[in-house]
Amino acid sequence: MDGRRAASAPPKKRVRKPRGRGLRTKTGCLTCRERHKKCDEQQPVCGPCSISSRQCVFPRLSQDAGRIASPAASHNERPTARLGDNGSHPHVDELPQSIGSTGSISLESQTSMQHVSQPPGTYDAAHAPYVSQPRVSAGVTFGDVYSYSPETVASELWTTDLASTRWLGLLATDAAQADSGFSLAPSPAPEDEEQRRAADLHGPPDATNLESRLNEVSDPERKTWQADRDITLSNREAALFRHFTERSARWLDFLDPQKLFSTYAVRLALRNAGLMNAILALSAKHLSKLGGGGHRNSNVSNGDTEEDSGGEWVRYYYETLRYVQEALTYTSYTASEELNATAIVISAYEMLDESDGRGNWQRHLKGVFWIQRSQDVNGASGGLRQAVWWAWLRQDIWAAFREKRRCLSFWAADKDFCELDPHGLADRAIYLLSRAVNYCAYSRLMESSSLTEVSASGNRARAGSEMLAEMERWKSFLGTEFKPLPTSTSPSDVFKPLWIHPPEFGVALQAYSFAKILVLLHKPRP
């Protein structure tokens, strides 16, 4: 009997030891750690960063920065519920309705300070509240946010709370490094018994039970981070807001037929201070790039008595971070459309802020990816979340191409070309371009590897041929919307100009051509 049982038992699976045990280091500059390069720790600029002309930033984290999930050591002010006249239905302190000339939109807090500490070693993970990881602040532990990447973080860590906190940690840390005057107060964490019981009962929110968790969140919680009436803007802010709606939002809306950023997200911003400040920061930054601080734009200059004194975009950017830091203590915000929209608008702002490629925007894209993954957002989610995902993918394609790396997304499109309308085919061209960038990164990795086997080269060639065939199949499904329209020519034209309208379909054909060139350049020759 024992012999038969032993014979029928499955063989014991061999456990492979991790290759990197003992090799990973938490010293050196943040840039080298992000690029997985060995740092010589020379300050203020290390050797690798000096050679590659990259921004060298050394961490200023406390001794316990490596702890992933520890209870908050202290808790700041937070909005409290006040009983109505009838004493039955509490309502929460309202958000301020005006940004003011300084753009200081924030959550209003009117409670007494509570300092809660916990002796070392007494933390019980079984009773951890939703907001159990370290909160972001200039004088508080951020956690080792740089040890996480989309490739290494385990799936069980992708909760909406952790992902958004890690993203804010990246932004706030870099802001504090760049500006010693910037600081965030410690974020409050829920400590009351009711929230503790809810944490024990439901566990941390994740993508699998996101909808059910959102249904359980009461309306009073949303009122703590969402205004009940439109925010009042100053003349300057109203001009910046209009500039975003009519100009800057085009980048985010470019391939979206519904134009959800210029039609829907801007209306969300009227009730959400964080998104509004992010929009104002991007708009002001865009105008500064155009030159003259908006003097060339009639919408901004007419009737504007508050001309930009310089650096107003930084002020709005910091106010966004302060708002998000406070709002992230609420489950309904960590899973909201407002957070998704704020993250991608801030990402567009940072993209403008680092045109030389030496800033921190490219690694902040990972933070946006974390938020999307925690909410199970992809290119087929629908609504504003889907629009955010496609806008993020276009940004990540550019960053990945510049960094010669793979794109962060691993979403696989499931619809066939025949099921897509013209706008869906335009989006699919961007998706094919992301795969072409991934193919280039893989080819460079194989070419730089010492193990250049014939079979590996054959697999690359086969994969390249399959991608080229898929691109041609995509092109075969294009309708008349993608055909060039008549346009004037000149004898001096080297190439015949092509005019395709609407322009988003022309961009789709450019993405197709770019993807085809990349694959042909990196496909092994027979």
UniProtKB/TrEMBL annotation:
It comes from the Eukaryota. Residues 1-25, 67-127, 181-223 are annotated as: Disordered. SUPFAM superfamilies: Zn2/Cys6 DNA-binding domain. One of its GO terms (cellular component) is nucleus. Transmembrane segments: none annotated. The keyword Nucleus applies. One of its GO terms (biological process) is positive regulation of transcription by RNA polymerase II. It is found in: Nucleus. Keywords: Nucleus. Residues 28-58 form the Zn(2)-C6 fungal-type domain. Residues 98-120 have a biased composition (Polar residues). It holds the Pfam family Zn_clus. One of its GO terms (molecular function) is DNA-binding transcription factor activity, RNA polymerase II-specific. PROSITE patterns: ZN2_CY6_FUNGAL_1, ZN2_CY6_FUNGAL_2. Coiled coil: none annotated. Residues 1-10 have a biased composition (Low complexity). This is Zn(2)-C6 fungal-type domain-containing protein. It comes from Colletotrichum fioriniae PJ7.
